[in-house]
Fold this protein.
Amino acid sequence: MQASFDNRLCSATARRHLELATKKKEMEPYSPGITSWVVEHADNAMMAMASRRYPNLKLVDISKSKQVNDKGLVALARACTKLEKVVLNDCDNVTIEGIVALGKLRPKLQMLSVVDCQFMTGFGLSSFMEKCVDLVGLCLSGCRIDDSGVMGFASSYPPKLELVDLSNCRQVGDDGVAALASYCPNLKHIDVRGTRITNTGVVQVASKCAGLRIFNAARCMQVSDVGIKALADGCSQLTHLDLTCTGLTDEGLKYIGRKCTWLYTLKMSECSMLTDAGIEAVLSGCCLKLAILDLSSTSVTDKALEHMGRKCSELAVLDLSCCSNVTDDGIQAIALGCCKLHSVKLSSTSVTDLGVDALISKCPNLMCVKLDGCKHVSDKFKQMNLATYKLRL
C-alpha cells in the first residue's frame, strides 16, 4: 500500500514538473510590448523569466502559484517598474514580508488581490498601505484578517482607496467596518458578504461613505431594515446592491425603491419575508436602470412579475430559481415587457412549455434559460439548443 502511495505521489510530482516545463517553453521571448501576464501554478523560475522578458508589465496575475515565494515576487517587482495590479490569490508561500517589500519597490501600485491567502492576517498590512499611496483596490476575501487588522490598514488613511473586498473574512465585524468607513470615506465599493457585520456597521458605512456605488452584504443575517434604510438614505447613488439572505422585509425594500433610483443590480435571494407588495414597490422606483435582478428562493408570485413586465424594460438578467409560485402567466408578462432579457433562470418553478415558448419567441436576445427541476416542462425545451430553436421560429 505504501509503495502504491509513493508511486502516485511520484507520478503527481512528475506531472507538475512537466506542466511547469511546458509553461516555461510557452513563455514569449523578450517582449517589451507585453503588459499583462496571467498564469496559474507558476514558480520562482518563471517569475525570474518574466522579470527579464516582460519589463513593462502592468498587470501580473499568478493565482494558485503555491511554489512562488517572497523571493520570486520581489524579483519580479524589482524588474517591472510599471506594475499597477498584482493578483496573488491562493499563493500561500508569499508572506506579509513579501507584500511589504512589494509596496516599497512599487509604491505606485493601484490594486492588490490576496484572496484566500492564509498568511494575510492584517499584521504588517498597514506598512504596505503607507507605501502605496496610489492604491485604489484591495481584495482580502477569505483571509484571516480581523477587526484590528482592518483598523490597522485603514488608519493609514489611504487617500485613493475606492474598493475593499472583505468577503468571507469571518473575523471581521462592526468595529472593523466602522473604522474602514471612517478612515476611507471615498470608498465606492465595499464587499462584506459572509462577515459578522450587523446594522451597526451598515449605519456607519451609510453615514460616512456618501459616494458608495456597490455594496454587498450577502449572508449577513444580522443586517435588517434598520441598516438597509440607513444605507438607502446615506448612499442614494448605489448602482449594485446585494442583500441575499439578510433580514430584508417589504419595509426596507420600499425604502430602497424610493431612495435608490439608479440601481442596475439588485439581489435579494433567500429573503424569506418579502412579498409582492415590497417587490412591486422597489421595481416601480428602480425601473429606469435595473438590468440584473435576483429573486430566487423568495415567495414572489405572478402578480409581481406582471408588474415587472410593465415597469422593467431594461431587464437583462433575471433569476427566479426555486420560486414555486411562478407560473406561465407571470413569465408571459415578462416576455411581453422585458424583451431585452438574455438570461433567465426558472429552475424549480411551476412554468410549462407554454411559458418557456413565450419567453423564447418574444425575447430576441435570449441566450440562456435554466429549467432544471421544472416538472411541467418537456424534455424538448430542457434539452434544446437555444440558438438552433430560434432559427426555426
Remarks:
- The chain has 16 helices and 14 strands.
